[in-house]
Amino acid sequence: MKKILVIRLSAIGDVAMTVPAVWSLLKAYPDAEITFVSQKFAGGFLKHIPAVYHYEVDLKGRHKGFFGIFRLYSDLKKIGKFDIVADLHDVIRTKILRFLFFFSSSKIVTIDKGRAEKYNLTKIDGKVLKQLPTTVSRYADVFYKAGFKFEVEFDYLFTKSPLNEKILSITGIRENHWIGIAPFAKHKGKIYPLDKMEKVVELLSVRPNVKIFLFGGGAEEKAILESWEKRFNNTISLAGKLNIEDELKVISNLEVLLSMDSANMHFASLVNTTVVSVWGATHPFAGFYGWKQNPTHALQINLPCRPCSIYGNKACFRKDYACLNLILPEDIVGKIFGEIIT
């Protein structure tokens, strides 16, 4: 039996994208055991993969900072000896951690993030616009380096999960079209302008037999979504009401989720829900498109400067975010009702 330590500390969408590779590895090697080191949020989906033990890292407490890495190493050593340490993150914190495991006779394998080719994809002059390997395939490659041979054959964790009483008290029983909207992302270059997204909510809310569920987190996002809930009929904000696992259950019951290039796109992919995604500064070519999502469901404007960023964190080269502003609310609604819901 192989004991594998998998490390991917953040961000939540990137952790979600590890699932197809980890699930496929364990399907091919059912005698393997994986200890997955990540933050608390990862438990919402890792618990659905047999033979995965989620070790919850405490980056704001016990495992914070330089000395916290040594405490994390010490804590992990108490679990037992690992045959393989797979670093799916490759940041300073994980580099130190895998260096420490090197002296424990563990085989160390690390992700190749393709930084050079991503730079060529996003530079303004001399851009090399081509599809790069997907993040899921990069994760699988790490395990291939460790000697495992398998195909990534993941379909979904679950689909159309039964909803418990707590969820039903918020959502009600499904009697019509359920549409989810996740309008936020970490960086401005990935967020469809909120005034335009508000128009999308309005256009959808007046359609017959439609119920809209809004997804977000944090006080500011919660306040915006609750204001939309009050303004528009058949619209319910789920912000702050459910944990990640229960949100996944709701997403699994949607006909479609409208999302940015963000974690919610990947959550929907884990539960076999169709996504209409909006892309601005980033691009599916970078390898972060939702697992098994239809490429034609991505809304994007072709501009010479796109993509200008891998994560959407760079200031707009044109200073007008035309990549997002040129997408009309009517285009989004037409995509949802013209292609997904008929």
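Second entry:
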Amino acid sequence: MGLATGLAFAARGLSVTGYDVNPRVARSVARGVAPYHEEGLGELLRREVRSRRFSVAENLDALLRSAEVLFLCLPTPSLASGKIDLRPMKRGTAALARALRGRKGYHLVVVKSTVVPGTTEGVLGPLLRRLSRRPARDLGIAVNPEFLAEGSMVRDALSPERIVIGVQDARARRRLRAVYRPFRARFHSLSPTGAELVKYSSNAFLALKVSFANEISRLTERLGLGIDPVMSAVGADPRIGARFLAAGPGFGGSCFEKDLRALVARSHELGVRLRSGEVTLEINRAQAGHALDLVREAVGPLRGKTVTVLGLSFKAGTDDVRESRAFPLVAGLVAEGARVRVHDPVALANFRRAWVGRPDSGPSSPVFADTIPQALAHADVAVLQADWPVYRRWTPAWTRRMKTPVLVDLRRSVDPRRAAAAGLRIHALGVGRGVERAASVGRTRGRTEARGGA
């Protein structure tokens, strides 16, 4: 998020300096090499490094020699209680505050990370003021939540649909608006706590839309209907909107699950029970079990069966596996005695690292296949979990690798006509058995998949 944000500022003509406490990441970025997979990011990074609009500082002192507006883009991981872990945020804030001591002129510190409502005004702001020892007139504090979706981060950062800022005074507002002047987007100016609540409310509502579509998909399966034409018509209502209504195995990624749990926990602290958040999380957990049900329905008892899982990232377009629905799916298959093979075009290594040591990983490990043919060899069934474009181009040669030519398509990605030509039988999530689906209907207009959170 920090890298995409900084590069977007640079691409709009601002002079940007980045800093990261991880020296490996810092060195990679300084060389113009993106440290993770994100469409368009590597090209943008190389261009802005060459233009010298974007550079990397070796330490905070070097950063402060050139920066007047400082964005804090630090992790806020989830604790077992559902609350966010503020320790990384506090450490970074404290280090920046100490580096600001004795500096001349006005500096604006902007909290870009996702923190629960009240954190900046109640925790981070006081910490900054106390440790920096700077008078209020020389230190502005603001909140500027990000709304970037993995897989489309570059596009979202360069062309934001809205810019939300939370400020306490007019000077901070003017400075932050000046930073965003090159961007054409509607501004929403609130208090810091109000801006923090906007971020959480947005993700909670999007997660609710995803879970709603997933529940309706179970009805369409029982009624002999297809979920996509139903949701296409529902989403045509401008009061509802078409995005985030594509049913699937559930939402994942670094935002929705973490933010919902944190909002529920924060609401509880304030004496409010957030039932919509609780139910959304419950539906998402149940959807992983429903995916397993579909596999059993397709091939019967799983013990001794060879099952191939295609797509391990939480969605196509990223190598991020955080909260990927592939984890409960693979864990469930292993627990029921299946022999599991897994494949992903970019996230295989990340999934392998994350799988080790998981409490639900079970006594056996899946086989990590480098190629699709290897993954499909002698498979009793394949399960498509993340809809990478390569899987949509299913070939007869892939089918011939399988023991039984059955695909459980959790994303409705493979065109039924292509599947038929390849000799492949499809069991699709959200589609009643025997339903004939025209390829033009599959995945509502604009491919309205849940883009995983901002």
